[in-house]
Amino acid sequence: MKAAIIGAGFVGKAVFHDLQRVNMISEIVLTGRNMDKIKAEVMDARDAAVVREQYGPTLNYGGYEDLAGADIIIYAALLTEAIKKEAFRIFQGKGYTSTGVSAAACRIAAAIAADSREVFPVSSVLQGEYGVNGVAISVPSVLGKNGIEEIKEFTMTDSEKEAFFASVDKMRQAAGSVGIL
User: Fold this and answer.
1) Domains by residue range for the chain, with CATH
2) What is the pTM of this model?
C-alpha cells in the first residue's frame, strides 16, 4: 500500500518516520514546498533503513505528481494543533506538537491499510449526516480500505448538539472566509 505525506515540518517528519513502522505500508512518498529539505529527510531515512532489522517500505520524495496512486494521503502542512489544552501545553513547552499527531495519523493509516473497519473521529464533508450539508467536520467514522466506509450517527444530548453545531458554524465561517464555501 502506498502512502503519501504532504508537508515536512515537525508533524510531517514525525509521520514520515512513524509510518515506516506500519507493516502494511510498502511505499512512502514525502512532498512539500522545500524540496531540498524533503530530499535530505528521505535520504537520511534511507540511510537509517539499511540497519533496520525488519522490512521497511520504499522511501521516496517528489512533487505532487508523485502522489499518483497513493492509497493514503496525509496532509501535514501548516497544521495548527495547539487548539486543545493538552496540545497547547505541549506547544508551550517545546514550540510545536508532533508525536501525538503522528501517532494518531499512523494509527488511522494502519486501520485503512488493514481494512480493520474501526471507528475513528475523522473529518469529512457531511452530506446530511447529523443534519449538516457541505461542511467538513470530524465525526465518528468507520475506516477501511476505501477510507471512510461509513459515518456513524450517535444521539447527542442538547448540550452536545449545541457545541457540535457551534463547531459546524465556525468551520462554515472559516471556509467561507477563504472562499471554499
Assistant:
1) 1-114 (3.40.50.720), 116-181 (3.90.110.10)
2) 0.66
For residues 7 and 34, give the distance between their C-alpha atoms in angstroms, rounded to a whole number.
Answer: 9
pLDDT digits (tens, 9 = 90+) for 41-67: 999 999 888 777 667 899 999 999 999
CB half-sphere exposure, 28, CA atoms < 13 A: 34
Q: What is the mean pLDDT of residues 15-25?
A: 89
Q: How far is CA 108 from the centre of its chain?
A: 8
Res. 81 pLDDT band, cuts 50 70 90: very low
CA-CA distances (angstroms) from residue 102 to 20, 51, 107, 131? 12, 23, 8, 31
What angle, rounded to 10 degrees, do the helices at 10-19 and 99-113 form? 40
